[in-house]
Design brief:
- This protein is an alpha+beta fold and 95 residues long.
- The protein has one domain.
- Helices cover 44% and strands 13% of the residues.
- It contains three helices and four strands; from the N terminus they run αβββααβ.
- A two-stranded antiparallel sheet has the order 1-2. A two-stranded antiparallel sheet has the order 3-4.
- A hairpin with a 2-residue loop joins strand 1 and strand 2.
- The longest helix has 19 residues.
- The two termini are 15 Å apart.
- The relative contact order is 0.24.
Length: 95
């Protein structure tokens, strides 16, 4: 049975299904985990913005264009993480 909660499930949606897997910046791989702090509270709004930034996209560049996708990421965060604010330590892959 697939895990439907937690960071792994969230990233399955964000990366595997919706294609936000990071980018190459200055010849190096740049991913969401490079933005997430090691600890402290992270809000769903911060996470949504970081998803776009990790893909080298301005989340405010075309609000109308990205509104539906931002909403999907927002809802997925709350569903998978169980809250609209989590500790950054919970935003790590579990093996």
């Amino acid at each position: 049975m697939e895990n439907t909660t937690g960071f792994n499930a969230l990233m399955d949606l964000v990366c595997a299904r919706w294609g936000f897997c990071g980018c190459i910046k200055n010849g190096r791989s740049f991913q969401l985990d490079h933005i997430i702090p090691t600890s402290g509270p992270v809000t769903v709004d911060q996470f949504v913005e970081w998803v776009f930034l990790a893909d080298d996209m301005n989340p405010n560049s075309d609000l109308e264009k990205w509104a539906k996708l931002k909403k999907k990421i927002y809802e997925a965060f709350i569903e998978c993480m169980g809250s609209d604010v989590v500790d950054a330590r919970d935003l790590r892959y579990k093996i």
